[in-house]
Write a structure and sequence with these properties.
The complex is a heterodimer of chains A (321) and B (422). In chain A, 31% of the residues lie in helices and 26% in strands. Chain A is of the alpha/beta class and 321 residues long. In chain A, helix 2 packs parallel to helix 4. With 422 residues, chain B is an alpha/beta fold. Chain B is 67% helix and 7% strand. In chain B, the strands form two sheets. Chain B has a four-stranded mixed beta sheet with strand order 2-1-3-4, with helices on both faces. Chain B has a two-stranded antiparallel ribbon with strand order 5-6. The chains are: A alpha/beta (321), B alpha/beta (422).
C-alpha cells in the first residue's frame, strides 16, 4: 500500500501563553477526502499551517508524500486555499493566475494554457484581462480556486473550505473536490460545518482545544458512536410513551417534540423491548428506526458545549516561519 | 531563484504599468527643473519699485542719491524736498498713506546725519526682497562714500577711475586638476543630487512598504508564504522595486542626453541662462558611480526598514504612524545636507557621511561639493554595506513574523521578541 500523503506526528504549537495545537497526530491516506473538524479556535488553521510549514511546529514532525522536505519544498505538489481569501486587487486576472502558478514552479507558457482553460470552464474568459477588483466576489472566489488547483496538485489543502462561498460556488467546489478525488488526488480540508463534512468526507479528524478527540473513517466513527440512536414517529395515539421513555434502564436520553421523538438507548437498552412496550401500551407508530447519528450529533457529544469557547487569544503570537 | 525572479517580475511589471510611474517620469524633471529655476526667477523678477526720497539735507546729497537711484532699472525715484532739520511728521504720515494706497512702494528718509553716521531710514510695504534691499543698500552706500571722500578733498573722478569691479573666477580642483566646474555648478550638482537621492529613497522605500502592506491586507501573503520563504519574497520585492527605480533613472538619463545634444537647436539656447546661480552642472563618470552606489545602498537600507514597518502594520493608518521614525531619519539626513553644502570638510559633515543612515545623502553631496579622498568614500561604503546586512537581517525577521500577524501593532518589546524567535 502506498504511504500516507500527510503524517503529522505529535505536532505542537504554542503561542505566547497558550497552546494552539497540543501533540496532535494524524495520517491522511492517499486518494481520500479528509475532513479536519472542530469548533472555531480549536487549532484547525494552526494545524494546517504547520502541515504546510507556514509555521514550524514547536515539537513533533510532519512528513509529506512519504518523503523528506517541508511543505514549501513540496509546494509544486500542493494546492493551498487559506481561510482568509485574497488576490492582488489591481492585477489582471490572468496575470495573477500566471504569477501564482509560477510560484508553484510552473512554466509560464504551460500556466497560460491551463489558466485560459480553467477561466473558460468557469465562464470567466471575458474577464481575463480585467482587474481583479472589477470582478464580483463570487467571480473572485472562482479565480482564487483556479489559482489553488492550476498546477494539478496531488494534495489540495483548504482551510474553512466552504466559508464565504455562495451556493453556486459551493456546489462548484464540491463537484471539483469529488472530481479530483476520482482522479486519485488527496484533499484535506477543515470546516466547522458538519453537514458539509458528512456529505463529502471519507475520513475525519475531530479536534477541540488543540487536541484530537477522534479520527478514522467516517463509517467507523459512526459505527462506534452510533447504533444507539432511535427515531420514533407517532401516528396519533401515543399510548404510555412518556412513562416508557422516562425508564432510564431502557432510554438514556429522550428528545420528544409532539409526534416525533429522538431517543438514545441506555447501554443495557434493547430496541425490540422498547418497541414491544410501546405497542402494548397502545401507541400507534408510523416510524421506528434504529438510525446512525448525524456527524453533527457525534461532534457535539464529543466536543461538548464548552469547547466552543476557546481560551482567550493572547495579544501577540510569536510564530516561527 | 526562479520564484524570486517571478516576484521581481511581478513587482516590476505591475509598477511600470501604473499611471503614477509615467507621471513621475514626466513630471519629475519638470518638478526638479522648477525647483532650480523658479527661486532664481521669483527673486530676480521683483518689478520696478516707485520710491520717494525725503530729502532733509542742506547739501546736494539727497538730489544726488535720487538721481543715482532713478538711474537703476529697479527703481523710479522721486525727490521730496523737506528742508533741513527735523522732518514734519504730517509729511511722513501722508507718505505712509501713499504706500498704503499703493501709489508708492516705499520711501527713504535722509538727513544731514546720513553722511556722518551712514544711517538712512527706509519704509516700504515690502522689505524682505533681497534684491531690492541689496540694491538700495549698495546705491546708498556708494553715494555716502563718494560724498565722504569728496568732503576729505578727494576728486570723485579719481575715485571712479580707481574703482574696479571684482569678478571672482572660481573653479573646483579635482585630482590635482581644474575641472572647469564653477562654484555655482558644484553647488547646483550637490544640491540636485541631495534632493534627488532624498526623494527617490523615500519614494521607492515607501513603495516597498505599501507592497508589503498590500499583500498583508489582501491576505494573499499566506498563499505566497506556502510556496516560497519569507526572505525570498522580501528579496524579490526589494529587487523588483529597485529595478523600477533604476529604470526610471535610465529614462531620465537617456532623455537628458538627448535633450542636451539638441541644446543648440532649442529656443533660448539652453538651460544655463535661467537662474544664473544654477547652471547646468557637468556630471563626471566618477560622480555618476558614487551617486549610483549610494542610491542603491540607501534604497536597500531604507527599503528593508520600510518593509519591516509594512509587515508590522495591519492597515494604511498604522503604517503611516509606524513609518514616522524611518522617515524622520531620512529627513534629518536631508536637512543636514545644507550644513554640508556650507562646509563639506567640517567634522559634522565627515561624521554624517560615515553614519550609514545619513551617508546615502551626505556622501554624494560632499563628493559633488568638494573633492574627497577615495579612502574616505570606501570606508563610508564599507560601513553602509555592513549596516545593510545587519538591518536587513533584523528587518527580515520582523517581516517573517509580521506578515502573518493581525491585530494590534507590536510594541518595542514584542518586536525584540520577534527578532529573537529563531
Amino acid at each position: 500500500m502506498s504511504p500516507p500523503i500527510v503524517v503529522a506526528d505529535r505536532i505542537t504549537k504554542r503561542f505566547a501563553g497558550h497552546t494552539a495545537v497540543d501533540a496532535l497526530s494524524l495520517s491522511v491516506p492517499p486518494g481520500v477526502i479528509y475532513g479536519l473538524l472542530g469548533p472555531n479556535g480549536a487549532g484547525k488553521s494552526t494545524t494546517i499551517r504547520m502541515i504546510l510549514n507556514i509555521y514550524a511546529p514547536d515539537s513533533g514532525t510532519v512528513r509529506l508524500f512519504g518523503e523528506e522536505g517541508t511543505g514549501r519544498d513540496h509546494s509544486a505538489r500542493i494546492g493551498y486555499l487559506p481561510e482568509e481569501r485574497g488576490l492582488y486587487p489591481k492585477m489582471r486576472v490572468l496575470d495573477v493566475l500566471l504569477f501564482l502558478a509560477e510560484l508553484k514552479g510552473m512554466d509560464r507558457r504551460a500556466a497560460r494554457t491551463k489558466a485560459l482553460d480553467w477561466l473558460a470552464r468557469m465562464g470567466l474568459s471575458d474577464w481575463r484581462l480585467r482587474k481583479v477588483n472589477e470582478l464580483s466576489k463570487g467571480m473572485q472566489q472562482k479565480v482564487q480556486f483556479i489559482s489553488t488547483i492550476i498546477h494539478e496538485p496531488d494534495l489540495l489543502v483548504m482551510d474553512e473550505a466552504f466559508s464565504g462561498l455562495d451556493p453556486v460556488n459551493s456546489q462548484v467546489l464540491k463537484d471539483t473536490i469529488l472530481e479530483l478525488r476520482a482522479r486519485g488526488k488527496t484533499i484535506l480540508f477543515s470546516t466547522h460545518i458538519m453537514e458539509q463534512a458528512e456529505k463529502v468526507c471519507d475520513y475525519v479528524c475531530i479536534i477541540a482545544r488543540g487536541k484530537k478527540l477522534v479520527d478514522g473513517t467516517l463509517a467507523d466513527i459512526k459505527r462506534t458512536h452510533g447504533g444507539k440512536h432511535l427515531l420514533v414517529n407517532f401516528d396519533g395515539a401515543r399510548g404510555d410513551a412518556d412513562r416508557i421513555f422516562a425508564d432510564r434502564r431502557q432510554v438514556a436520553k429522550a428528545d420528544v417534540s409532539g409526534q416525533f421523538a429522538e431517543l438514545e438507548l441506555a447501554s443495557q437498552g434493547d430496541a425490540q423491548e422498547l418497541l414491544k412496550a410501546l405497542v402494548t401500551s397502545g401507541a400507534r407508530l408510523s416510524r421506528f428506526e434504529l438510525a446512525e447519528p448525524s456527524l453533527n450529533k457525534i461532534f457535539i457529544d464529543l466536543v461538548g458545549p464548552e469547547a466552543a469557547n476557546p481560551v482567550a487569544r493572547p495579544d501577540a503570537e510569536v510564530a516561527r516561519a | 531563484m526562479r520564484k524570486v525572479l517571478a516576484v521581481i517580475r511581478r513587482e516590476f511589471i505591475e509598477r511600470v504599468r501604473q499611471k503614477w510611474f509615467w507621471a513621475m517620469v514626466v513630471l519629475g524633471p519638470l518638478f526638479f527643473g522648477a525647483l532650480f529655476i523658479l527661486p532664481g526667477m521669483l527673486i530676480g523678477k521683483t518689478g520696478v519699485k516707485r520710491i520717494a526720497v525725503v530729502d532733509g539735507t542742506s547739501s546736494t546729497f539727497g538730489a544726488h542719491l535720487t538721481e543715482r537711484l532713478d538711474a537703476e532699472s529697479l527703481f523710479i525715484a522721486v525727490r521730496v524736498a523737506a528742508g533741513p532739520g527735523a522732518i514734519d511728521s504730517s509729511r511722513i504720515d501722508s507718505l505712509r498713506n501713499a504706500v498704503d494706497r499703493k501709489e508708492l512702494d516705499g520711501f527713504l528718509i535722509v538727513g544731514d546725519g546720513a553722511v556722518d553716521s551712514g544711517k538712512v531710514m527706509y519704509r516700504a510695504s515690502n522689505v524682505s526682497s533681497p534684491v531690492t534691499i541689496g540694491t538700495l543698500e549698495h546705491v546708498v552706500s556708494e553715494v555716502v562714500n563718494a560724498t565722504r571722500l569728496e568732503r576729505e578733498g578727494v576728486n570723485p573722478a579719481l575715485v571712479a577711475k580707481a574703482r574696479i569691479h571684482v569678478i571672482l573666477d572660481s573653479k573646483k580642483i579635482s585630482g590635482g586638476k581644474e575641472t572647469g566646474e564653477s562654484a555655482g555648478q558644484s553647488f547646483a550638482l550637490a544640491y540636485f543630487m541631495g534632493i534627488i537621492l532624498y526623494m527617490s529613497i523615500l519614494l521607492y522605500g515607501i513603495n516597498v512598504m505599501s507592497s508589503v502592506l498590500e499583500e498583508k491586507t489582501t491576505k494573499i501573503v499566506e498563499v505566497l508564504i506556502s510556496s516560497l520563504r519569507p526572505f525570498q519574497l522580501l528579496l524579490g520585492k526589494v529587487l523588483g522595486v529597485g529595478a523600477v527605480s533604476i529604470f526610471q533613472f535610465l529614462i531620465w538619463g537617456v532623455s537628458t542626453r538627448l535633450i542636451l545634444s539638441q541644446r543648440q537647436h532649442l529656443p533660448g539656447g539652453g538651460v544655463s541662462d535661467a537662474g544664473g546661480l544654477f547652471q547646468m552642472p557637468h556630471v563626471t563618470a566618477s560622480t555618476a558611480v558614487v551617486f549610483g552606489l549610494y542610491f542603491l545602498g540607501g534604497f536597500l537600507l531604507y527599503s528593508a526598514m520600510f518593509a519591516a514597518v509594512g509587515a508590522m502594520s495591519s492597515n494604511e493608518q498604522e503604517a503611516r504612524q509606524a513609518q514616522q521614525p524611518v522617515v524622520m531619519l531620512l529627513v534629518a539626513s536631508f536637512i543636514s545636507m545644507f550644513a554640508m553644502l556650507n562646509d563639506p570638510g567640517s567634522t559634522l559633515s565627515v561624521t554624517l557621511s560615515m553614519i550609514p543612515f545619513s551617508a546615502p545623502i551626505a556622501m554624494p553631496v560632499r563628493w559633488a561639493a568638494g573633492n574627497l579622498p577615495i579612502a574616505e568614500v570606501a570606508l563610508s561604503l564599507g560601513i553602509l554595506a555592513v549596516s545593510i546586512l545587519g538591518v536587513t537581517w533584523i528587518a527580515a525577521r520582523i517581516y517573517r513574523v509580521g506578515i502573518l500577524m493581525t491585530g494590534k501593532r507590536p510594541n518595542i518589546k514584542e518586536l525584540v521578541r520577534w527578532v529573537r524567535a529563531a
